[in-house]
Amino acid sequence: MEHFINILIVDDNPTNQRGLKEILNGGGNNVLLADSTEEALHSLNQKEIGILIVNIDKREFGGIELLTEIKNKEQFRNVYKVVLTEQSSTSTHIVRGLNEGAIDFLTMPFSPNLVKAKIEIYKSLYYKDGRIRQLLTNIFPEKVLEDLNTSGKFSPKRIENGVVLFTDFVNFSNKAKAINPMKLLKKLESYFTKFDEITNRYRLEKIKTIGDSYMAIAGVTETLEHPEIRACLAALEMRDFMHNERDVAKALRKDFWEIRIGIHAGPLVAGVIGTKKFSFDVWGDTVNIAARAEQSAENDSILITKSVSKMVEDYFDISNPKEVEIKKRGGMIEMFKLDRLKLPYCLYGEGKIANADLLRKCELPSSDFDHMQKDILNRLKSMLPEELAYHDINHTCNVEKAALRFAKLEGLSSYEMMLLRTAVYYHDAGFLVQYDDNEDFAIKMAQSLLPYYGYSEDEIEVITGIINATKSHNEPENILQKIMCDADHDYLGRADYYHVAKKLREEMENYDVMMSDIEWVEFQLNFLENKHEYYTETAKNIRQGGKKARINELGKLRAELLKNAAIK
Known about the structure:
This protein is α/β, with parallel strands linked by helices. 51% of the residues lie in helices and 18% in strands.
């Protein structure tokens, strides 16, 4: 598996830049160059840099000052900094560089093997750091991690209006007795994984699972608007997901699970407890009341308290008010059944999914990317012609992987990535209609379908522009279009080129485009040498070398085929 990383070389000496780039090119290294510290800061702010190599020899160049400037900034904490010098390892330059945050040094003239060895070590450490960060992100909210990184602790905080959501499965204990433990665990994991997707979509924070119970909060670890609405949207989607699971199980005459959900809003305390195994949690009467609401809900229903209903009644249909006794604490609280979204605030007129206006009100993405993704992939899987040996669903998935890789290295935002991924899913959808001029049909399909998923006219214009850039005679104009074109032909510089090219030849033959072996080789060479080019700096750095290798290999194969033909 290839690992990709941005390596930034900061030096005003072109010879040093070329030397290091030649040594480090390949193996997933996207080597970037900066001639000044100002240019370096721009790259550091725009892209995720994994390794920074800075020349500190010339005082006027400002290499040491660059290290000093980024030393204590949280955004550069994970950058591995290496100083570049002609001095010996005892030089005061190196000592000062190490004092300003560098972890190692490289000396000139370069020893290629030593340079590669050192950079590979830091590249490996960078990826291990990334895996650790990902694990910690799955355990702690972002705000907690920021506080732990800066001060080493997270002080307990009182939240005046936090929202707590609880779910559990009806009669779970009896169901657990009647099912194989591994099957039980897999089923529970599949449901909780879906709940994780939903809570993430509405920017809730999952706190924990206890047996078959799932707990999440809103308005505690983030500052987005209307946490009550977001919690109710998440609850509706969880309930409707379980409804669909139930209906499928009934059709197959299989056992099914039912869910109960409760939501309450009010004051609570959030904090981290533990000295060895840390745990982020919330406490207070609000938590207990939310749990009681869940326990009092009917099968496959959502029960919200009066404090929540007051804040969401303009947007949701609410029914069946009832008084619920709060055990241990004592007293009664009025609760309501949350039924569905009001029609003016939903997509598709079903009362299930929020429309763009309501999502924007909650500071959430206005487009329903997840449902769009599911629907278009289902269309491609079930309806693409069998003759498409190359432009199949695997091609779409591979283009998406390449697009995400380039987008991350190029420093695109999550919103830009969403638009790019949408274009990737639709860019071959025209093949559902016809083989030639497929991009035009893909654009028409995107223009027709995307409004149903809440995409705005401006977003659709960006997406169709990306698709249009993949036409053979068009030139990409912006970074999104360039990434799309490069991702579409990522395989040209990969090691699996011949496997993919074989599928393309098979597809062309399925559409009556026949070539002899020599014609096929010349066809490939003509495309690689005369028609194709990579547009982004990332693709040029990562894939251009592999593409040149394919050209050399195909050139040798052509010479061999011509020689054999002459002999015959």
